[in-house]
């Protein structure tokens, strides 16, 4: 087994790899890690006065090895050991291989250093950073962090204490979720991930659950010469009487994302009939429409009032349809959560999430999304600058491929339309949601560049065909270019 290139390693994963190394293997891994840190630093900075601040665990051990290499290459290096390694531990053995100057008190060295390396805590952070340690690191002018800036929870991106921003963070094997989750993301600077030579036994310990959302994590439906509109998939959208724009935007997005046929049912039927000519508009009761087995995928929520949702959603659920619930269908509190059981995907922003799940919204976003997915039994797309896509089985993807240009009215309706089209094309719910979030982000990036930063929502839909082409170019698993981190 090898680790998928888009896996993100939680601290727990990283520690289970470490424990599978055995002592010799562990020493080799630390040697590889420290050497990688030194190489990444040498590639970015000229030799300068450097302080490596080492903690008591293997994060500190990486620091001692990095210090050794930098000194070998002629740098002026001292180690500040803020906590000694445990007696007779492997870390102590590795620390002894550093023969240079070591201090246990800062004595003004940090403030006077050109570069400070934060090797205090990484995966083993178990409680908040003390004020004393935080004060020491905050005096650094330029900081490079090993694994994560000390005080960052590698799993959730939460900060345990006051954390100093690094301009470079060097991690190992695969990046950590925190590198891509706010608030930690803003404190990591450039991310470098080093391959330190992976023994297969150690990798087998890892059950990947967190992924970076990039093409290659999913495959888009393949266009075939024999395609017809029903094989491409039918999307049905519950029509709104008043907020008709939301429905039309979602319908256009679904049509531009490969759906063979998009139908709107009910609401202001006359208006929909006079809008885009490529739509089919139905004026039949929902109970009739659900009998058509070709109409499996339904989008329920954009533009809908509570009363409209109540008229549509229970019937769709009892007919066993594949449902994306968004906007109006994401009501308030436990009753609304109960009413959603049976849908396949929900796409809340943080406000909607808080209304639905209450106190769960106070948990770190990745954990909140995962628990909500388990609670509803549906994929949860928790929208934001670091959108999280959580499946009920515990898989989570973190999306980075996005643009602030997406923060515009109607953007969520566009996303809902894309997810619906990919569901109709036969993709499983988590993969369809991940792919849709990426395509939506890509269209936002392209629209921002084409229209100068503030594109209107209609521009997103126009970019979806090209977004699809770019995704297809990158989804070949061997072609992981343009990832949001450098590889060493
Ligand atoms: N597989 C990999 O990715 C590799 C990672 N490497 C590096 O290893 C570290 C993880 O090392 P670990 O020893 O597990 O953890 P830490 O170095 O982060 O620190 C653990 C010790 O720190 C104490 N601790 C934790 N939090 C605090 C705190 N707030 N204040 C004081 N002390 C703290 C902790 O004490 P406990 O009481 O909780 O036991 C431990 O003593 C990873 O980050 C990488 O840098 C490998 O080198 C290569 C393979
Ligand atoms: K660190």
From TrEMBL:
Domain YjeF N-terminal: 9-204
CDD domains: YXKO-related
Enzyme Commission code: 4.2.1.136, 5.1.99.6
Domain of life: Bacteria
Cofactor(s) needed for function: Mg(2+); K(+)
GO biological process, one term: nicotinamide nucleotide metabolic process
Assigned keywords, A-Z: ATP-binding, Isomerase, Lyase, Metal-binding, Multifunctional enzyme, NAD, NADP, Nucleotide-binding, Potassium
Family, per entry: Belongs to the NnrE/AIBP family. Belongs to the NnrD/CARKD family.
Protein name, per record: Bifunctional NAD(P)H-hydrate repair enzyme
Origin species: Neokomagataea tanensis
Recorded name of the encoding gene: nnrE
């Amino acid at each position: 087994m090898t680790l998928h290139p888009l896996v993100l390693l939680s601290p727990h994963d990283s520690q289970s790899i470490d424990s599978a190394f055995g002592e010799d293997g562990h020493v080799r891994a630390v040697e590889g890690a420290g050497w990688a840190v030194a190489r990444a630093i040498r590639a970015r900075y000229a030799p300068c006065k450097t302080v490596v601040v080492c903690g008591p665990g293997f994060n500190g051990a990486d620091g001692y090895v990095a210090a050794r290499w930098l000194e070998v290459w002629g740098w002026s290096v001292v180690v500040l050991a803020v906590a000694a390694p445990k007696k007779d531990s492997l870390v102590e053995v590795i620390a002894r291989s550093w023969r240079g100057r070591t201090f246990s008190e800062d004595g003004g060295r940090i403030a006077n250093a050109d570069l400070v390396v934060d090797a205090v805590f990484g995966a083993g952070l178990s409680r908040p950073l003390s004020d004393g340690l935080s004060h020491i690191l905050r005096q650094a002018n330029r900081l490079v962090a090993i694994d994560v800036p000390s005080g960052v929870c590698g799993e959730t991106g939460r900060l345990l204490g006051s954390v100093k921003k690094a301009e470079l963070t060097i991690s190992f094997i695969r990046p950590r979720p925190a590198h891509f989750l706010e608030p930690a993301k803003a404190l990591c600077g450039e991310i470098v991930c080093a391959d330190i030579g992976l023994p297969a036994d150690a990798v087998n310990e890892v059950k990947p659950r967190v992924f970076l959302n990039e093409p290659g994590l999913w495959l888009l439906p393949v266009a075939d010469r024999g395609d017809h509109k029903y094989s491409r998939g039918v999307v049905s959208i519950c029509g709104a009487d008043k907020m008709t724009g939301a429905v039309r935007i979602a319908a256009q997005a679904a049509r531009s994302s490969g759906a063979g046929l998009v139908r709107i049912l009910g609401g202001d039927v006359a208006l929909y009939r006079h809008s885009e000519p490529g739509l089919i508009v139905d004026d039949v009761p929902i109970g009739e429409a659900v009998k058509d087995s070709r109409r499996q995928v339904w989008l329920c929520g954009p533009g809908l009032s509570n009363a409209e949702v109540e008229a549509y959603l229970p019937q769709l659920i009892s007919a066993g349809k594949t449902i994306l619930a968004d906007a109006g269908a994401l009501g308030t509190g436990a009753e609304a959560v109960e009413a959603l059981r049976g849908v396949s995907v929900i796409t809340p922003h943080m406000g909607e999430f808080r209304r639905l799940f209450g106190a769960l919204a106070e948990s770190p976003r990745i954990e909140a999304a995962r628990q909500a997915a388990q609670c509803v039994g549906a994929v949860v797309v928790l929208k934001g600058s670091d959108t999280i896509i959580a499946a009920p089985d515990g898989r989570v993807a973190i999306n980075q491929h996005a643009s602030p240009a997406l923060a515009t009215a109607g953007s969520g309706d566009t996303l809902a339309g894309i997810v619906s089209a990919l569901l109709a094309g036969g993709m499983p719910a988590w993969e369809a949601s991940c792919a849709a979030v990426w395509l939506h982000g890509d269209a936002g990036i392209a629209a921002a560049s084409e229209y100068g930063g503030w594109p209107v929502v209609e521009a997103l839909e126009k970019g979806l065909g090209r977004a699809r082409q770019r995704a297809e170019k990158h989804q070949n698993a061997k072609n992981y270019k343009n990832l949001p981190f450098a590889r060493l």
